[in-house]
Amino acid sequence: MAADTTTGTAAGTGTGAGPDDGALLRARGLVRRYPAGRAGLRRRSVSAVDGVDLDLRAGEVLGVVGESGCGKSTLARMLVGLERPDAGTLAYRGTDVTRMRRAEHAVMRRGVQMVFQDPYASLDPRMTVEQVVAEPLAAARTGTRADRRRRAGELLELVGLSAGMLGRYPHQFSGGQRQRIGIARGLALEPSVLVCDEPVSALDVSVQAQVVNLLGRLRDELGLAVVFIAHDLSVVRHVADRVAVMYLGRVAEVGGADRVFDAPAHPYTRALLSASPSVDRAQRGRLGRREVLRGEPPSPADPPSGCRFRTRCALAVDRCAHEQPLLRLAAGDDPARTVACHRAEEVLTG
Amino acid sequence: MTSPVHGSAGSHAAGTRTDDATATSSPRTGAPVLEVEDLRVEFRSRGPVVNAVNGVSYAIAPGETMAILGESGCGKSVSAQAIMGILDVPPAHITGAIRFEGRDMLQMGAEDQRKIRGPGVSMIFQDALSALNPVYSVGDQIGEMFRAHRGTSKKEAKDRAVELMDRVRIPAARQRVDDYPHQFSGGMRQRVMIAMALALDPKVLIADEPTTALDVTVQAQVMDLLKDLQRDTGMGLILITHDLGVVNEVADRVAVMYAGKVVETGTIDDVFTRPAHPYTRGLMSSIPVLDGKGQRLNPIVGAPPSLARIPPGCSFHPRCPMARRGDGGRPDCTSDVPPLREVAAGRRAACHYSEELLHG
Fold this sequence. Notes:
- The complex is a heterodimer.
- Helix content of chain A is 30%, strand content 22%.
- Chain A contains eleven helices and eleven strands.
- In chain A, a hairpin with a 2-residue loop joins strand 9 (242-247) and strand 10.
- The radius of gyration of chain A is 21 Å and the shape is globular.
- Chain B is an alpha/beta fold.
- Chain B has helices at residues 76-84, 110-116, 128-131, 138-150, 154-167, 173-176, 186-198, 216-233, 244-250, 268-273, 278-286, 354-359; strands spanning 34-43, 50-60, 65-69, 92-100, 103-104, 121-124, 204-208, 236-241, 253-258, 261-267, 341-344, 347-349.
- Chain B has an eight-stranded mixed β-sheet, with helices on both faces. Chain B has a four-stranded antiparallel β-sheet with strand order 2-1-4-5, covered by helices on one side.
- In chain B, helix 8 links the parallel strand 7 (204-208) and strand 8.
- Chains A and B meet through helix 5, helix 6, helix 7, helix 8 and helix 9 of A and helix 7, helix 8, helix 9, helix 10 and helix 11 of B.
């Protein structure tokens, strides 16, 4: 786990520590809106991500969890520069990349790479594995063709495949192998950050663990920082040093993985954890005892005022409808965790 | 296709039969309502024959929940589709027996089969959006069950649709009965499909990955609903899933499938606490435990085989840490097919060396 230096959050703004704590990526107030038709003459829009603050430190695995529509994939696409935020800043190694020109973007592109969810859709079926893996090198005009070929072979070995497979096509590989190829491509430019959007959720259970172990090994061997986005809480707990829980475009809480999972401070995290079925026989029946969430997530096109979770929250009070809770340090809590709930202290004690 | 078992002494007669199905310790086991015996499904088209289901047997009693657990391509969905008669024949080639209340559906004419599907056995699917017709209101689609099977009038069918939507806890059913599938959320669409499946009070409901496309909080609601409905109606529930957590929560018994075969069956307590097949054990140790941390996962090596190229012998042997060549007359995992056999009271496994797993 990276050196934890976010004690500055005690200020109550939740914006993290000072500028020199070694955050590779620093998001502040990130917003991404999509057009959503019209209401009368007014154009409407949906805020898929609505003011997200997040730090990624060197060498850490940051898990991002939440249910569908919470904005985690949109966040991922902004972190790698595939989408521009409509508001807020994103700094890579201290440089705000949201204000960069196109050419300058190349710096961040090299440093931050992405692994996609679906290993079937994300590899071009007409390209050989060599072309797939060496494509980022060719695009960056790195080395000669022979150099790139050698490098592609090394990358395949790094992810547990063999260099002898370079001439094959994606359809000749299983889902797990394809995801390894996607990871090898992501590593081609020797990034410091790998953003993985649901990297194992399209894989079979017996294969998921192979890819999870691979990502853990790469983090250890290459000192990679990883953003691991998933809806599967048990996988995230397994791989992440820190976890951010998202709900409807905002961060509900963020902190050390053990702290968040063992003692959730946000009612949503608590409900999410209690609704996740366990494979442990001793835990059977826990769903019957779970904290039942009312209804379903509201539409991001028409989010509730104040706290966006309040319509499903058992603890909601008047204040929650009027005042948006900001990420803050709850009284008596671990200073490395911040939570966006007016009643976090009650969640923690009860 | 052997003796009909309907009306026999129920589970205690199972000793005379070859399938794995009925000899269980489930307290609710009466005479099975649905039995599948030595079911085989091959797909013959261009290219190699695909053996999607290779001799699967199971049975389900009223009120019982049986999980069919397996990864993609293990044949778990195809076996259910064979029961529902929704495979195109050809290219599918189906053999074996599917007995509903003792009568083999594979020996029946199409019209007799149709009378079972719906009131006897019905099914819900993973993807409710593509299973529902986008151009008909949900009320029309639920009501169609009554009109097609019972000749109910249009108006009455709509009233019954509203009742069913209430029953599956769709809020404001009366107001929403004329809405279309796209106007519902994923969880609500799944409820619409459950309402359709329950319209004719089936004795068995087959749920094929019913919650896989749903978020965990919604998944928990849908599983609650299915269990409550089962309690009210006494139907048997066949839950097809890859999710060990869901199986752990809701199943009484489980059949684990691999490469088109059942490799292990038993009560959920037995199978989850002491797996008798190395595949089951491998699955269990592939899963991170939510409450535990830092433990290294022990994945199964390799990937499930293509059903067009199933390995000889035990189909799991290329991935199995226990696989061995026979010596001294012992079975050879690479060539001897392990039969599904009783390895302990009430449980069966298809592994030559189950006893080693069970007893140390």
